[in-house]
């Protein structure tokens, strides 16, 4: 299938990054969210991130302007109806994602491909609640989307080859690299990354180190670009907890139990950078550890 129009649901940090790279690659993009404020913020951020690429000589000002012109935003989910491909990037909660697909389906063309940017949730289960499980896939971008090279492609049990080939062609056109993963909880990247982040929170919880020493240890001792707690704040602590819960429930192994301290931060609404407080407090000029 020749994909030209892409509908993106959810204008948070992933949705805006996905809109950015799709528009830059020449796709027409309609970005949907339930909050006008999120849509406005997303457009402003895309503009800023494209400008950063212009100032570093990565793209021309003309390319930036055409990319911006290819993005429209809407609060009305049904306006994604004419899309050839849907990329759902709303909150990491299965009921939210199911409801979005349910509301969207009656307005879509029969050939439209459905995908989810979920970090962990079963693609097979999400697909089974739609009228087209063979045209449903996991399309998992990494954060920050304009910078990270990888896209994980996850087939559900029913996904057909034409759907996989169409999604792979999109990844190629974005100039990114596809890795295929089987549909098991959290796929490849988060199966490995999230237990490490959770272990860093246990290390903090048990007092083995503080926020700064834990992050510095992994940055200077293992050459990670960000420490695990800094990265958790960057991803969003609600998303990290949701992924650990999917691993714990789906694999039924206590080694995946979420650290109670991670739960406590989420309960406090300290979700990391997006709420300006998590393992660090971002409200001042420089991030200050909260422990
Ligand atoms: C949870 C999931 O489901 C899956 C996931 O995504 S897991 C998370 C995966 N992501 C990571 O692990 C990210 C780890 N961190 C990093 O790689 C780096 O810290 C980083 C790329 C985010 C920033 O790198 P840095 O060297 O500290 O910053 P900086 O020098 O300012 O940026 C590097 C480049 O990225 C660009 N950049 C940084 N953040 C950006 C953003 N949000 N949007 C667009 N461009 C951005 C910069 O413009 C710069 O570009 P050039 O190389 O062209 O100059
Ligand atoms: N953060 C990361 O590093 C990565 C996340 N992902 C995945 O991407 C998805 C999005 O994550 P992320 O962008 O970080 O999350 P954010 O919290 O930044 O954004 C989610 C957005 O979805 C919106 N939303 C919630 N419900 C609906 C709905 N019914 N219709 C439309 N929009 C809705 C939220 O609105 P509101 O705020 O008003 O609730 C919010 O704007 C998740 O599935 C996550 O697991 C994948 C890779 C990396």
From TrEMBL:
PANTHER family, sorted: 3-HYDROXYACYL-COA DEHYDROGENASE FAMILY PROTEIN, 3-HYDROXYBUTYRYL-COA DEHYDROGENASE
Xref: Pfam families: 3HCDH, 3HCDH_N
Name of the protein described by the UniProt record: 3-hydroxybutyryl-CoA dehydrogenase
Keywords of this entry: NAD, Oxidoreductase
GO BP annotations listed: fatty acid metabolic process
Sites annotated Important for catalytic activity: 140
The organism of origin for this protein: Rhodophyticola porphyridii
The keyword Oxidoreductase is assigned to this record: yes
Domain 3-hydroxyacyl-CoA dehydrogenase NAD binding residue range list: 5-183
Residue sites binding NAD(+) per the record: 10-15, 33, 92, 97, 119, 143, 274
Source taxonomy: Bacteria, Pseudomonadati, Pseudomonadota, Alphaproteobacteria, Rhodobacterales
Every 3-hydroxyacyl-CoA dehydrogenase C-terminal domain range: 187-282
Keyword DNA-binding: no
Record-listed E.C. numbers: 1.1.1.157
Family that this chain belongs to: Belongs to the 3-hydroxyacyl-CoA dehydrogenase family.
GO MF, any single term: 3-hydroxybutyryl-CoA dehydrogenase activity
